[in-house]
Write a structure and sequence with these properties.
Structural class: alpha+beta
Number of strands: 21
Strand order of the largest sheet: 7-8-19-10-15-16-17
Helix content: 25-40%
Largest sheet: 7 strands, antiparallel
């Protein structure tokens, strides 16, 4: 840098630099003295003749030289002891500062540990290298976490998009159901309106004919009453009297009105009752954020199956991995709760409850000590309860539906064969934290265990004045 800012004539830093036509620069005094002995005037570097008179000041170069000089002075000041004006060649480890040799023997640094600059530099560089390793490891860890965050963000976007699509689909089903119900009710109303209208039109036509006949009779009688000839009047009187006494049918005063109450009365209630027969009434919803990546949940979150193929899902703390488990969405801290799980012809499965604080990563052992109260099936015919020690269960009938009953305050989790209501097993204990429904369809068992686990819809009842009316499942 100093060479670039030095005059080619005096080889010192530029002083009042000026530029020639060839763009070479020199100190003003240097180029002036050089030209006094040079005829004609030429550049000392490229020998090109110049006509730059007066000389052009190079203010930019002058500013750069000034900044450089200040920087050099600052460096020199930093390398000199401000107290003794000696170069700082020693580093005091005790005070962690640069000092000069006079400082080293002074009272202020007496008995301090000092090192030459080179040794201190190497020692502290080694220390920094040691400190760098955990920082670098932490950075790599943060990079990995950021990568997970990016994947989680993408998953959130997909979740939002897919959930929005599913919500619209579910509402469209309800809208379609309501549209069909509306169409049915309106068609029934239209048929009744047309039927009653035809009946009233017939009555109007009939009574119109009767009115016309009566009008003719009135006209004839009035004409006879105006007759002045007694013989003519008396001659026609018997026939006129007979016409006046003719019996006419009484008009029907009761009209066939539309039964408005049949259509409007309790309309929403009646539609709601029908809707209960078509909507999903599963008492438990599966939580997809807890499902192992090898599990696939149905759109309505009431069915789970093992796929054997790992999905790209975030490794969030709630998710089981690698155990093929999934929990219900809602947990319980009080009350009595029950649900049924269809196991069908599966050869392996687990169902039960699990506490919120269970470990969800790595290999897991199912027992109450680890936060699980569950029963299961292995090898198609071996039933067991995961109590403190595994208890084999002898069942006379292979259940196709398992009923799970939780009595939180009573400290009981009971299991039943829902088909014949027979008792399977009951855990007893004391619950101190939130419990969640727990499910595992287990592995494929060589292709024999590919059926899903399904949470059965709950039988819905509607209370009326005469009692409870059960609706179909």
């Amino acid at each position: 840098m100093e060479g670039e800012l030095s005059c080619a004539v005096c080889h010192d830093l530029y002083k009042d630099p000026v530029s020639l036509d060839c763009d070479h620069s020199f100190c003003r005094s240097c180029i002036t003295r050089y030209w006094e002995s040079s005829v004609p005037a030429a550049c000392p570097v490229c020998r090109k003749e110049t006509s730059s008179r007066p000389l052009r000041p190079n203010r930019t170069l002058a500013n750069i030289v000034e900044i450089f000089v200040k920087s050099v002075k600052s460096d020199q000041n930093q390398q000199e002891c401000s107290r003794h004006k000696e170069k700082m060649k020693v580093f005091c480890k005790t005070d962690k500062q640069l000092i000069c040799v006079i400082c080293q023997i002074s009272k202020s640094h007496q008995n301090h540990e000092v090192l030459p600059l080179e040794e201190a530099t190497e020692e502290f560089k080694e220390e920094l290298r040691a400190l760098l390793r955990p920082v670098r490891d932490k950075k790599e860890e943060c990079d990995a976490v950021k990568s997970d965050y990016v994947k989680t963000l993408a998953h959130i976007q997909d979740q939002g998009k897919n959930t929005e699509k599913q919500i619209k689909c579910e509402f469209e089903k309800l809208h379609q159901f309501l549209r069909e119900e509306e169409k049915t009710v309106l068609e029934d109303l239209k048929l009744e309106k047309e039927k009653n209208s035809r009946e009233m039109e017939g009555r109007i036509e009939k009574i119109t004919e009767e009115i016309s006949s009566l009008s003719d009779t009135v006209q004839d009688i009035e004409q006879e009453l105006s007759e002045q000839d007694s013989i003519k009047f008396l001659t026609k009187f018997p026939e006129t009297e007979k016409r006046a006494k003719r019996t006419l049918p009484e008009p029907q005063k009761v009209s066939p009105l539309i039964n408005v109450g049949k259509y409007i009365g309790s309309l929403q209630y009646r539609v709601w009752r029908k809707m209960l027969m078509v909507i999903n009434t599963a008492p438990v919803t599966l939580d997809p954020n807890t499902a192992c990546p090898y599990l696939l949940l149905h759109e309505d979150l009431s069915t789970v199956r093992y796929t054997g193929k790992r999905q790209q899902l975030p490794d969030n703390p709630e998710r089981f991995d690698p155990c093929v488990f999934v929990l219900g969405l809602e947990g319980f801290t009080s009350g009595k709760h029950s649900w049924e799980v269809e196991v069908g012809n599966k050869t392996e499965w687990d169902v039960g409850v699990a506490k919120e604080s269970i470990n969800r990563k790595g290999g897991l052992t199912l027992n109450p000590g680890n936060g699980y109260w569950a029963v299961g099936l292995r090898e198609g015919n071996k039933y067991w309860a995961c109590d403190q020690s595994v208890k084999h269960l002898e069942l006379s009938v292979n259940p196709r539906k398992i009923g799970v009953c939780l009595d939180y305050e009573g400290g009981k989790v009971s299991f039943y064969n829902s088909d014949n209501k027979s008792h399977i097993y009951t855990f007893t204990g004391k619950f101190t934290e939130k419990l969640y429904p727990y499910f595992s369809p287990r592995l494929a068992d060589g292709g024999k265990n590919t059926d899903p686990l399904k949470i059965c819809p709950r039988e819905v009842t509607i209370q009326e004045d005469e009692g409870f009316i059960p609706l179909s499942k």
